[in-house]
Design goal:
The chain is an all-alpha fold and about 350 residues long. It has one domain. It is built from 13 helices and two strands; from the N terminus they run ααααααββααααααα. Strand 1 and strand 2 form a beta hairpin. The longest helix is centred in the first third of the chain and has 30 residues. It starts with 9 loop residues before the first helix and ends in a 7-residue tail after the last helix. The relative contact order is 0.17.
């Protein structure tokens, strides 16, 4: 993708960076037992601000594909070479996710290796959306988007209950992956993974909405972003009356609701940064997004595996903060410090023009 000559939008880098920083914040509290409610995912059905972070990132993946690939398609670049680039990069992202889980296996001494994950889902969605961008017209992409929403919605409905472990997405994932999922119910032996294979159908729909939004962005059609965002949010709320908003299952209502918000947020960032010249806060994270996410995970696993994680938290944060402020403040302070450390890292990398590409 580095050979593309399309202009780079500072707003996209900034929004990607803010999203990655938010990922690090919610993924690294000092104490998982004491996290402020807005920084936690909904337990099952429902929605919190944290539930917007991952779909926002996948939406931006789609936007980035539109900005990087579509100009090259239009000028007649070899589609087979571009396809190879897309598929190889998608495979590398998946491979990095699998490596991270191998490190987690060592660091936390978990019983089973987990196959699905955040980077694995990003890699799959990137590859699928990239191929669609290369070989299909916008009308076809919208048809695929609709087919994913209604097809996946029908599959969930046919499976009956949407409750944990017994919904059809969890049942299929467990049948295919066995114990290599995120969560196993000790009482029933059933499994569930919030980044499972079946719910990736919904995640791909989010990425395709980002693909279409990215095309509007590069054509300067801000009005389409605002209108699509409004329609998507309204449709998501209406659909939620039938199938609730649910990040774990990435339900169609969740796709539409979060996708609509993402359209509006993208429009705001574009208006303020690209058009009005506001500083692109978050850009340093955005231009080294995967490196920051993976690097911070490797750091976390190293601290945990060496037995330094808990002593660090207790001595630097909880030990003196908890008696004064209670347990929630040190937990948040640790998360903010974690983000600050990586903000320094990516700022130094950006200043030296060092950008890690996968």
């Amino acid at each position: 993708m580095s050979k593309a000559t399309a202009p780079r939008y500072a707003s996209v880098d900034a929004l990607r960076g803010v999203t990655v920083a938010a990922m690090l914040l919610v993924n690294n509290p000092g104490d998982w037992g004491h996290v402020y409610a807005p920084l936690e995912h909904a337990v099952w059905h429902g929605f919190t601000p944290t539930d917007l972070i991952f779909p926002m990132f996948l939406f931006i993946v789609g936007v980035s594909i539109a900005l990087a690939l579509m100009p090259r398609v239009e000028r007649g670049d070899d589609p087979s070479a571009l396809t190879k680039t897309v598929l190889v990069r998608g495979a590398r992202i998946v491979g990095l996710g699998l490596l991270l889980h191998l490190c987690a296996l060592w660091a936390f001494d978990v019983a089973h290796y987990r196959v699905p994950g955040v980077l694995q889902r990003i890699g799959l969605c990137f590859a699928a959306a990239g191929v669609l961008a290369l070989y299909t017209w916008p009308r076809t992409q919208w048809l695929v988007f609709g087919a994913l929403l209604f097809g996946y919605g029908a599959l969930l409905a046919a499976g009956g209950s949407l409750e944990p472990f017994v919904n059809i997405a969890s049942r299929i994932d467990h049948a295919l992956l066995g114990v290599h999922v995120y969560q196993l119910d000790a009482a029933t032996g059933r499994g569930h993974d919030p980044e499972g294979l079946v719910s990736t159908l919904g995640a791909l729909a989010t990425t395709l909405l980002g693909l279409r939004a990215g095309d509007w962005l590069r054509r300067g059609d801000r009005r389409a972003l605002w209108i699509a965002g409004l329609i998507a949010m309204a449709a998501g709320l209406a659909w939620s009356l039938w199938q609730p908003l649910n990040k774990n299952l990435w339900t169609p209502s969740y796709v539409l609701w979060t996708g609509g918000i993402a359209c509006w947020v993208m429009a705001v960032f574009h208006s303020l940064i690209d058009l009005r010249g506001w500083p692109p806060l978050g850009r340093a994270f955005g231009v080294n997004a995967i490196a920051a996410y993976a690097g911070s995970a490797f750091m976390l696993y190293a601290l945990a595996g060496l037995g330094w994680l808990d002593p660090l938290y207790q001595h630097a944060f909880a030990g003196w903060m908890t008696p004064r402020f209670g347990p929630f403040v040190p937990s948040l302070a640790y998360a903010l410090a974690f983000v600050a450390v990586w903000w320094i890292v990516v700022r130094v990398l950006d200043a030296r023009r060092i950008y890690f590409k996968i």
